[in-house]
Amino acid sequence: MNKPILKNEPVATSAADFFARSRARLGFDVPPGLYDPNIIPASGDPGTDKMLEIIAREQPVRPAAVLIAVVDRPEPTVLLTQRSANLNDHAGQIAFPGGKIDAMDASPLDAALREAEEEVGLSRGFVEPIGYLDLYGTGFGFRILPTVAKVRPGFELTINHSEVDDAFEVPLSFLMNPANHQLHSKEFRGMERFYYAMPFAERYIWGATAGMLRVLYERIYSS
């Protein structure tokens, strides 16, 4: 299955409007489902919800944090990475800077900022955290808590090639246009589950990354 979702209209995505909406809708309360396997993050797709229930019974919860870094340019952009082709998990895929939450991390926010520094050299001095997005579950047992942040232009990146092959920016207007939100499906143990894809030029944004971007759209613009 491969079709765009057209039930919502494209939105105006000025930086000022996006950040104002984000501050009004997001906060820093950590959802208990980040660590509790008995709380299943809702996806809105029955097949995916059932998959997450099965995964929670079979695998330990793996708390993770990512940074949705929105760069405050005249046309705002989102910073994404292409994971190293040599990694064991999700090699070569498009992702947000981020990773698992370590015991030394003071919070999911701290984990997201640490990972962004380690992966692409994004200095915390350029980052203004705004709040957490909804908890996102994956078929690999990860419970991902995204931090939405405003990033001041002028930063210089240093790519850690053991983790990331490349870092690049995509216009927020493209990612927040529902006409670009393709819905795909695949089978999981006899059940059909759906996931998003947002192809951009030669970059294929899909899976959890596209799913969290869709959640961002729904949380910031659909209400």
Q: Summarize this, please?
A:
Keywords: Hydrolase, Magnesium, Manganese, Metal-binding. This protein has five helices and eleven strands; from the N terminus they run E-H-H-E-E-E-E-H-E-E-E-E-H-E-E-H.
Topology (elements, then pairings):
Layout: E1 2-4, H1 15-25, H2 46-58, E2 62-71, E3 77-83, E4 94-95, E5 98-100, H3 108-120, E6 127-132, E7 136-137, E8 142-151, E9 164-171, H4 172-175, E10 182-188, E11 191-197, H5 207-221
Parallel strand pairs: 2-8
Antiparallel strand pairs: 1-10, 2-3, 2-5, 3-4, 3-9, 6-8, 7-8, 10-11
What does this structure look like?
Helix content is 25%, strand content 29%. The chain is of the alpha+beta class and 223 residues long. The chain has a single domain, classed as Nucleoside Triphosphate Pyrophosphohydrolase, CATH 3.90.79. Strands 2, 3, 4, 5, 6, 7, 8 and 9 form an 8-stranded mixed sheet that branches. Strands 1-10-11 form a 3-stranded antiparallel sheet. Strand 7 and strand 8 form a beta hairpin. The longest helix has 15 residues, at 207-221.
